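Protein Entry — a single chain follows
Fields — amino acid sequence, structure tokens
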Amino acid sequence: MKKWTCESGILYCADCVVVMDYLLKKGIFVDLIITSPPYDNLRSYNGYELDFSKIAIKLSEIIKPGGVIIWVVSDQTTNGSESGTSFRQALFFKDKCKLNLHDTMIYKKMGIRYTEKVRYSQQFEYMFVFSKGKPSYFKPIKDVRRTARFSERPRSNRQRDGTIVRNKISYDDGTIVRNKISYDTGEISSTHRNRTNIWEILENTFGVKYHPATFPTELAKDHILSWCPEGALVFDPFMGSGTTAICAEKLDRFWLGCDVSSNYCEEAVKRIKAAEEGFGLHRRATLNKEVRSKLGLWTGGNLDSRILQKISSKNIQTSARTT
């Protein structure tokens, strides 16, 4: 099994089931899995075919209690009907792997869409969020909201019995006022609000020609920020062009990844190494110092074996505290 050791992670060139078996034997479990697997026949991945059931079962075994799996998929349309593969996979994770279907998120692709003759243009993919029990970490992304003038018309919500209740909010001084509806005039205020589960993200695939379905950088980055803390271990079983690894390193998380294609792995390593150089030596010596010291890494010797050894030790200690 060929492998490449980078600054904060390891990339294996092998089938992901084989890699997960190898990691499990070493007692290594992961905090977050984020990936977009080959689905239906929408893309060609050097002839690779997905053995979904084996992969799903292994993913459910290698994820820690409280860990989260982000599974980004879509469906092929054949003879006028969508395959429904995404829903069958989601139910398999839920019913067979006994994971929680924590959320069904939408990745809305920003940009020009091709016009369809018999249906509306396809503009989104599913981002299924599976968790092993209650997620142990969640830090929602906050976006700047646009607010300006307000009307005095109160905001209302319809209750289960059909009645309408006008919402109220209380301030720190105890006064109570009605909520006000804001109208966007293009002015940016300093207030923020939690993002919804529909994410509008630009497809930034420019400059990556060797892979047919490059992961959007913002999508990987925001999921990592949302579901795991600094120093956590992120795993991508279909590493492809290496975007998950780049985002994990930049955000001070450790990562493990694999891909069955040696061509994809070699090109991904080039991207990861180039990104590491872009981070700068100062960043590697300062911002990553605290994270690295927690696991005792980057002190010389075989980094590959040290990563696996220390991550394994951390997993054992975490499991002990949990029990």
Remarks:
- Residues 141 and 297 are 30 Å apart (CA to CA).
- The mean pLDDT is 77.
- DSSP finds nine helices and 19 strands in the chain.
- The longest helix spans residues 303-322.
